[in-house]
Every structure is written in C-alpha cells, then in structure tokens.
Amino acid sequence: MATKKFLYVNRKAPHGSIYALESLEVVLIGAAFEQDVTLAFVDDGVYQLLKDQDTGAIGTKNFSPTYRALGDYDINQIYVEQESLESRGLSKDDLMPLTWEDEDDDWAEKDSIHVVSSAELAEIIEQQDVILNF
Amino acid sequence: MSVLHIINKSPNDRNSLDTCLRLALAGSGILLIEDGVYATRKNSSAAARVQEALEKNHTVYALQPDLQARGMSPESVIEGVELVDYDGFVKLTTEYDKTQSWL
C-alpha cells in the first residue's frame, strides 16, 4: 500500500464535545496502517495538549495521557499554531511534553511538538495528500 | 498543488472562515456552502473578509442552491464571488489537488 501524507487538524476543546477523542482514535488507527501522519492543533484545539488535565470529577474518560503514546507510533510531527496559543494566554510550557525516540540517533529522546506560525502551518497544509478536520 | 477549502458554517456563529483564511496559502480555492454562503452578503461584516480573500488571489465560490434556499439573490452577493451549481461543486473537487472541509 502506498504511503500517503495524512494531516489531522484539531480545532475543538477536549471535554465539551467528542471531537478530540474521536480524532485521537482515528489518528492512532491511521498510524497503525503505517501512513505518514501529521497533527495540527489550532484555535481551541490547543487546549487538548494542556498539562494536568484531570476529568475525575466530571466522570468522563481522561484521554489526555494517550497523547503521550503518539511517539510510540512514530507520530512526531505535531504542530501547534503560535497565534492560537498566544490568543489564549498560553505558551509551549503550558503543554504536556510529547517526545519520540530517534532510532537513527541512538534512540535519543526528541521533542514532537513544534510551535509554528500561521504562515508555516499554511505551507504544511499544502504538502499533504489527505486533510481531515476535527 | 493547491487546496480547495470548503466552509459550511455561518461566519457569525463559528470561526471556521476566519481560521481558514488565516491558514490558506494565496491562490487557494474557497468554496462556501450551506450556512457558509452568508459570508458573501453585501454590506455584511464577513463580506469584508471575503473581499480581502479575493484581494489575496483566492478564488471564492458560493453554491447557488444554498444561496437561493436562504433568499440570497445573485445581486445580493459581493462582486467577484463565482456562483456554482452542484455539478460545478463536483468539478471543483476534481480541479484542485485536495479538499479541506473545515468544521
């Protein structure tokens, strides 16, 4: 099967609707089929990556730790739009650390999250074969 | 290599159009369908953003059946927006390399 470049664009906050969880599940399925997966977090989607989420008191599944598994599926192209972070008073330090291990570099642990400008993200969108929005 | 961006939400209710316009490379296609067509209405605040999009060399299309259903005549639509029917919609999806259907 030919590999395609899949981009998943996430624009919804994590706990008010099912979109974020559904996106994460589809992303993991895509990765299992060894497609080239890129994630983008834009608008309220950046809230999905905030540290210290705890849904214990609202009785819903806390899926935020699952994002840490992305590195194990070789998903290390995670782009967060700078403008979306800034307008929400956030910076990269507010996001959970997501890393992957580079087997070509003695399994060095590397950062998966890349904060990019709108202009940079526009170029990344252009490079894809398939774009899915959540 | 160019993207057809499809917007189906009202510009007054959701930020899909604004985010799309922020992230679309110059020269993209922007197709407004369903409640997205309200953005083409002359003298509306969203129309100013559509006007800017036209000036950035985007091609802006609106789906005629959705305009008609909403009581928007071709004369009520700002200059420069291309009206397409369903066949035109299908043709656009074949002319662009890929589509991005914003939620």
Element-by-element helix/strand order of chain A: EHEEHEEEHE
Radius of gyration of chain B: 12 Å
Secondary structure tally: strands of chain B? 5
Low-confidence stretches of chain A: none
Strand proportion of chain B: 15-25%
The gyration radius over C-alpha positions of chain A equals: 14 Å
Task: Explain how this protein is built.
- The complex is a heterodimer of chains A (134) and B (103).
- Chain A is of the alpha/beta class.
- Chain A has one domain (5-133): 3-Layer(aba) Sandwich (Hypothetical Protein Ychn, Chain: A), CATH 3.40.1260.10.
- Helices cover 22% and strands 24% of the residues of chain A.
- Chain A contains three helices and seven strands.
- Chain A has helices at residues 19-32, 82-87, 118-126, and strands spanning 5-10, 36-41, 78-81, 99-102, 108-111, 113-116, 130-133.
- In chain A, the strands form two sheets. In chain A, strands 6-3-2-1-7 form a five-stranded parallel sheet. A two-stranded antiparallel ribbon of chain A has the order 4-5.
- The model of chain A has no long low-confidence stretch (mean pLDDT 94).
- By secondary structure, chain B is α/β, with parallel strands linked by helices.
- Chain B has one domain (3-101): DsrEFH-like (Hypothetical Protein Ychn, Chain: A, 3-Layer(aba) Sandwich).
- Chain B has helices spanning 16-23, 45-55, 64-69, 86-95; strands at residues 3-7, 29-32, 59-63, 82-84, 98-101.
- In chain B, strands 4-3-2-1-5 form a five-stranded parallel sheet, with helices on both faces.
- The model of chain B has no long low-confidence stretch (mean pLDDT 95).
- Chains A and B meet through helix 3 and strand 7 of A and helix 1 and strand 5 of B.
Element layout with pairings:
The complex is a heterodimer of chains A (134) and B (103).
Chain A: E1 5-10, H1 19-32, E2 36-41, E3 78-81, H2 82-87, E4 99-102, E5 108-111, E6 113-116, H3 118-126, E7 130-133
Parallel strand pairs in A: 1-2, 1-7, 2-3, 3-6
Antiparallel strand pairs in A: 4-5
Chain B: E1 3-7, H1 16-23, E2 29-32, H2 45-55, E3 59-63, H3 64-69, E4 82-84, H4 86-95, E5 98-101
Parallel strand pairs in B: 1-2, 1-5, 2-3, 3-4
